[in-house]
Write a structure and sequence with these properties.
This protein is 12% helix and 23% strand.
Length: 126
């Protein structure tokens, strides 16, 4: 898989202390996994999935999460304001299945559930 798990980043929150909305790329979300999904769950630190392939067909970043920039971090020091949150590796070669690298805490009900999370799970199973 052309991805490396880097950093532990805290998602940004809004004035209501809810997680900031995801930045999504609807044109790449061919399966509609993020239809009606505006956010995942807030977790104190989440990985940035750095794509290591130059082949744009190998893996697609479907969602990025705004970062809480109030805490110093090398990733934000380099000017980054979002991190790769949800990726899709389409079937290719001998692999006939989709691969969705994502940290399990982003869609775990252990950190609360809302309509956005329910939509995500519904989208995955339909």
């Amino acid at each position: 898989m052309p991805v490396i798990n880097r950093y532990g980043l805290r998602p940004a929150t809004g004035e209501d202390d809810r997680i900031a909305p995801l930045s999504t790329v609807p044109d790449l979300d061919e399966k509609g996994w993020l239809n009606g999904v505006t956010n995942f769950n807030l977790h104190p630190h989440l990985p940035h999935y750095a794509v290591t392939s130059d082949d744009p067909r190998a893996i697609h970043v479907l969602a990025r999460q705004p970062i809480d920039t109030s805490r110093p971090h090398p990733f934000t020091d380099d000017g980054n304001t979002e991190f790769n949150m949800f990726l899709w590796m389409p079937p290719g070669g001998d692999r006939a299945a989709d691969v969705l690298p994502a940290d399990s805490t982003i869609f775990s009900t252990l950190f609360g559930a809302d309509d956005s999370l329910r939509n995500f799970w519904r989208n995955l199973v339909t």
